Amino acid sequence: MKNLFIIALACYGLGARAQQQPSGNYLYLYSDSLVQAERIRLRADALNSFYFRADSRRVPASQVKFFSSDEGFFANTRRLNLANVSSFSERILEGRLNLYQQQPYLGDVGSGYYGRRRPVPEMVDTRMYYNKGFEDLKRVSYANLSGDLADNPQSLAILERYRQKRRTSTIMYGAAGAAILGGLAAFLVTGANTNLSAGRRPQFGASLLLLGIGSGLAVGGYTTGASAGRHLEDAVDHYNRH
How do beta strands 72-76 and 64-69 pair? Predict the structure, then answer.
């Protein structure tokens, strides 16, 4: 009985250490092995295939599940995209549950050096992922998160606000598309039915009104979707703190 207790305690200790975050710069591979290094850099070879340079060691990007460098902590989304191509998203919240946003880790293509991000026009990518510890990434969705946050009712309540905002945003985008298409159709019909030879000018008032309404709904849908993201982060943050 005593031996069984010692074995169980040892297994618990190993499991706890496995979930601890290593320090410094490292590559965490899909094989669950760790490659620690003073310097981690992402580069591209002559065939434009990505690989990591961990000090003097070369590791294909497709083998790397996570990596930590001077610029942050990133997760490979390769298994969640249709092309099965390595793309690394940045961790924006850390805790019992980690949240990632699609912020590709890129470098300066012109020099062939991939140790820093390429300066690109600022843009927002709404793709988000999450996980626990070093587990596989999951897509952020209400269905997925509601299961993982089920033991925290307050986090679930905040997550419900996220779902409501997402629904409202989707409805507004749909209405915007319908209004814009209606405005364009009315524009074409009005132009075709106007007798220009008689000196009449086409009346595009209704068309412009629909286009304006559509544009307003599109802006409203974007704003509502952005605010939904804040509720999502709040739900995860609350879960990590309680």
Answer: antiparallel
